[in-house]
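Morning - EPZ inputs below, output right after.
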Amino acid sequence: MNDRIYIEGGHQLKGSISIQGSKNAALPMMAASLLHEGVSVLKGCPRIADVFCMEEILRNLGAVTWWEDHDLYMDCTNATKWSVPFLFTGKMRSSVILLGALLARNGKGSLGYPGGCVIGKRPIDLHLLVLRNLGAVITEEEGILTAECSKMKGTVVSFPKKSVGATQQGILGAVLADGKTVLENCAREPEIVWLCRYLRSMGAKIHGDGTGKIKIHGVGRLNGGCMQVPPDRIVAGTYICAAAITRSRITLENFPDGELDSFLEVYRKMGGQYKGNSGKLIVDGENVQSPAPMLKTGAYPEFPTDLQSPVMAVLTTVKGRSCICENVFEDRFKAAQQMVKMGADIRIQGRKALVYGGKELHGTTVKAWELRGGAALILGGLAAGGVTILDGYSYVQRGYEHICQDLNMLGAAVKRMQE
Ligand code: EPZ
């Protein structure tokens, strides 16, 4: 199957596009739906590869799922299986957060040990820490993790470091446990707040989400959930970078207000302008001209690691030296090497990438190795002279529902290569 797209550079963008539902909010909400023995609905759910993979896993566990446009229905009445084959966990490591939900639902759960991926080792020690503290006995044999606990018991867990997935794992494990659980040094990402909103709508008793300390009082059962998936803040940030790299003015509908403050601060310091509220943002990238002397990624509310590569693409087109420090993942500069093939001057020094911007980018064939790096290379193609061919477009499709269609609606020239 041809996995390439063409990007013809040099087009200004204009007009408006609507932001899709959030991948990183939808996935844990789907896992949470397992905790109700009936039908739950996620409205405005993105139709992307990772969601389809999670849907396949739920079906594999006995759930019945169906779509009505972008509304995903999950009937988990008979989702009584407790083992997730490696076929799925190898493909999508975020499926590890199912372990807590499987334990809470069935008293048992097993899944293939989720490997690391191209952006880093991505251990799951913090996931196992919180489940063990809740009473789970977890063994690993030939790459298969098996967790058992007839009924988890509330506890206090202080995470040694912030982890989005491990925080979600603890929440999913604790909502049906006996007694009170306190999670300390939690991650504060919006996706954690959305998971807790969804669980509260199902009857869970959770307080403190969005802060470093989350308190959960276990309940006996949960009702069906029905909630709108929030807009994807990383997709929104990617499109703001598209406006910035082409020095264009665009409008974003269904914008996730209040979830991109650190990113917008960097964008503004680069000369970017924006205005708007209540779900609509007008973005003006025409005056983007200043480098980022020191950009550090970190846990929310710091600058999001998922927008590190997209912003790097923009910085290659801005005269001057920028320095990006990737503090979250240990190997998230793969896209930089591909941007160098397009003519960018980027020098990697461990966790730091030094970008000497202002060099003309030229179209060539580049390779995506992971989701956000792939999106960044598409942005590079928008600004490059000539045609850029991106190989590995399927990585981008894991998180972006219609990035080609969206960019073309704004005046870009991006298309799938025919067989
Ligand atoms: C979530 O991954 C997101 N994925 C990632 O988005 C995002 O980059 C990341 O959070 C950080 O914001 C989903 O939500 C599905 P972490 P997650 O646990 O939960 C280390 C994308 O492009 N760590 O917060 O896996 C880990 O290695 C993806 O949409 C441990 O050491 O991230 C990393 O260095 C990419 N032990 C740091 O913590 C653990 O048990 C933060 O990882 C778990 C994590």
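Note: The CA atoms of residues 158 and 184 lie 4 Å apart.

O.
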